[in-house]
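Side project, low priority. Logging it here so it doesn't get lost.
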Amino acid sequence: MEPLFGLLAAAIAGSVAYLVRSERRRAQLRVWRAAVERVGLTGVEESEGGIFEGAFVRGSSGDLRVRLESYRKGKYEHGTKIVVTGLGHGAGGLSLRREGLGTAIEKRVIGEREIEVGDPSFDAEYYVQGEAPLALAILDPETRRRLAGLLRGRVAVEGREPAEVDASLSDGVLEVRVKESGFSSNRERIPDILPAVLDVARRLVAPKDVAERIAENVWREAEPGARLRAVLTLAREYFPHPVTRATLLEARDDASEEVRLRAAMALGEEGRETLVDLVERAGTGDSSAARAIEALGERLSAEAAEAALRRALGEAGRPQTALACLEALGRMGRPEAEGLLLEALRSEAPSVQAAVARALGRVGTVAAVAALRQAMPPHGDLLRSVGRQAIAEIQARLAGAEPGQLSLAAGEAGALSLADGEAGALSLANGELGRPTLAGEAAGLVIPRDSAGTGPEGSAGTADPSSPDPDEAPRGDNRQGTIQGTT
């Protein structure tokens, strides 16, 4: 008898549980019907479910497909899950998650790359994956605001307290879970929650023309970083598109100098005036001015380069501009810039000094040699290495000089001599640096000879018959390191 009573009790308990679940399903269905009617879904289908499937209601709103179904998580949590598909993201569907420990591990350990839209607060809070152009097209300022509110777990309901939800966007599918367990009354609020969810979902639909949507978003953006991302994406991914050129042309007048710079760089000749303005404008940042100079290349005039260099030398904290100007002046091969370069050699920045030395190697005359030697430190340093190379380049460039010009022979100390075909010559001997001497007085002296082997005015080529051959002494004795003229 007792076993029979136990079976009867179990059957009653099972029946009660089934009736409770059935009533819960019917209650859910009533709420779901009210919700789909409120938003006007079409093609609505519903089911109370069964042993292997839960209850659901589904329908369509334009291209969006909406499904309301029950869910259970763990032992105690259950409720309604709203699933919206049909966003049209394709294989590169967007995924958004709140930044946290999991996303930090993915980025550091796995090396996953995230998409940044250029809005610092949004980028710091959300981890975005998918196709970058699609993200920039969809995530305009208003969409970011509304989606952020949903992903934070709160849905604004007009005239009532915000409803708490658990939302996610994964691979182009929007899911929102409304917990009904415990004493929660959220089930009755689903008709208020679903319109807000669909409003966000409609904003997440992929546009038919991604480039056109990105261009539209540029002028909606208050964040300069977001405008910059849009401009760069159009220039890189959609340059042939008609809307790209129009957007880049307008971006030349953007409030952000970085946006103006990158748009002008992408436009080529149509961006030249903007680049020149960035170089000449006193308030342009060091990095922006330097990159504008590099982008202009041969289109930058020597006068503009020299003026920019003078400003950079006169203002602290503009080494990048100075370096770009020095590179440009050296590339121009402009001897008239030597005076300004020698002035720049007095800079305290080692990188600027080294750049000056390289430029002098291209355009400097013998007048630059003494300044380079004076600036060079006695032992291993970047300037010493670059300076010696610059002196060697000056020597090589002036090796075929006309009578009266100076040249540098490869010596450690070096000596200056002037051979102009006139009687006497001026030399700077190695042993007594800086002292002018007459012909024959220093070993570094070279007196030009005529075809008979005599010096000027028919005099002997050397004052002392025992002196070494002047044609060989400078070459054979590297310690003299003479700078000598050619005849």
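Brief comment: Residues 257-398 form a domain with the Leucine-rich Repeat Variant fold (CATH 1.25.10.10).
Revisit when time allows.
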